[in-house]
Prior knowledge:
By secondary structure, the protein is an alpha/beta fold. The chain contains 18 helices and 33 strands. The longest helix is centred in the first third of the chain and has 17 residues, at about 90-105.
Amino acid sequence: MPNYMQTYRKWQADPEAFWAVAAREIDWVEPASRVFDPGQGIYGRWFVGATCNTCWNCVDRHVASGRGDQTAVIHDSPVTGMKTSFTFTQVQAHVGALAHVLRAKGVTRGDRVIIYMPMVAEAIFAMLACARLGAVHSTVFGGFAAPELATRIDDARPKAIISASCGIERSRVIDYKALLDEALDLAVSSPDFCLILQRDAQVCDLTPGRDADYADLVGTALAQGHMAECVPVAATDPLYILYTSGTTGQPKGVVRDNGGHMVALKWSMRYHYGVEPGDVFWAASDIGWVVGHSYICYAPLLHGCTTVVYEGKPVGTPDAGAFWRVIQEHKVAALFAAPTAIRAVKKEDPDGHLVRRYDFSNFRTLFLAGERADTAVIEWAGRHIGRPVVNHWWQTETGWPMTGNPVGLGILPDKAGSTGVPMPGYDIRVLDDAGVQVAPGILGNIVCKLPLPPSSLPTLWNADDRFTNSYLSQFPGYYATSDAGVMDEDGYVHIMARTDDVINVAGHRLSTGAMEEVIASHPDVAECAVVGVADELKTELPLGLYVVRDGARTDTDQIEKELVALVRERIGAVAALRSAVKVDRLPKTRSGKILRGIIRAMANGEEWKVPAVIEDPAALPEINDALGARGMIRSATVSTD
Ligand code: COA
Ligand code: AMP
């Protein structure tokens, strides 16, 4: 087995040869005429000229090669008390039947299909059925409110929507159908049809002429043995669009291709995650996030692993031993979780009593990503589980780890606070704001030298200019990650903070800009600012500050309640805006830029000072007093030099 350094150098020496070898792991209909063509797309395209089908590689090829009786998907749902398993042969039948239904209703290659579903096996089948037909899915996280869903419907203009009657959270049933109806009322674009999965917890009325019953149609197709064949698509064709938060309220539609995505994900399973076909791999995320796309759905199935679709929480369903129960019961080899989830478990079971109740003999590694993992949580998990805990870093845009610890290449010594070393494909640099590379250990902008490796986004959906402006313009020749951090002398990367208006709330990537747009739409608000404030459990929580307009109502308690409710209603409960504080003015530079960084430092109890460029020096101490009066600040030191 080659080690990390040999492998990384091999990639550096000849990236195309490296990815050509990795591509041998994939079944192609036609092989690529060029592994990488720098003349195509915005910064080049991978596997140009190749044709393939992602669903074939995830499902049919395993049936064809004798893996049909192996469990492919386990749905474990403590919130409903159900556990269901599907072999690769059964997944093939379900996916083929669903693809048959979609095709019969007119869905063909290139059409978009929105998937708005809870954590059920059918959500995976829906993604794979789209891939089977060459249709482009866009899976929307169930925790988003109707207006967010409507924005995505209008951007993707889907031919069909696949949804469910409800989702089940710890303490309540979420009426997905009502959210879907509201979104379709708000959206300009309308699908030809919706396919609705009825769930026992709450059955819904179907809208005549628009909705069809999932179980009726797919059940009939299954019973009649209908199975749509896999449609060959270009490797460069889009497999899916996944909307993610950016600086504005308009989410970015990250485009993922078929060929490069398969090659990189398959490589990552063996070499980064250190798992083999037949192992059970569990990503405790949600199919609405990139981790769910890559490591609940596609990568484990591409690699011939069993994947776990978990419909529950780390705590409260029923207790903080839930993760360990799933590991024992399903013989999980590797778990991928958000640090927040482990923090929630640690908080409820600090001494690890529940951990000791379960058998970890099949378990090898815990992977953490999605947000900053503090040393305390890594140390706690390592001590109680007795297995390596790997912190790694990536983004929706890349679809797989940019830095990590390649377990399959021989795990490297861990460095506290680090997210590991660059994976092959990523030439990571740290630049100052002028674009000059900084010395090891110095904080700067983390960038990746172009071209990006297979699986990374070639562009944003229908928004090439936005793609270039958002990622490629700031540092010509590099992809700007919008993360700040350092690389040390040994090449380990440490991610410190976002450089844009994105915050991370309980592992959910959210835009403060989007929240500001919602608050600013309130009739009593003249202007506002939202910043992410450190939180022990959820990493960050949004805090809103607002200034009322002339003639506004004076009942600030009521206005605050309305603002909190408005963010929940327009963006979703996951946004978790708990408070909005009225202030007389916002601190701005003379050119009108709101000094959000200082507000954040103030609320976090960090040292801050009044900068020379401020328009109105009294604004900051006033905010300090307003936050202090509400107990929203630990300590602060004002300095005016
Ligand atoms: N559909 C509908 N609503 C959802 C939802 C979904 N898929 N996911 C979350 N919500 C709702 C919750 O019900 C909650 O609503 P409430 O305010 O009415 O209680 C709200 O959104 C916030 O949810 P969440 O962020 O999950 O917080 P929580 O307090 O319920 O749970 C944790 C705290 C730490 C247990 C939880 O945040 C968690 O498991 N985090 C890990 C997330 C993760 O894995 N992210 C993947 C990134 S890789
Ligand atoms: P998402 O696109 O939702 O996966 O969020 C990506 C962002 O999450 C990154 O740009 C980082 O800001 C943050 N992130 C992901 N993984 C880590 C990590 N291991 N450590 C610190 N931040 C991380």
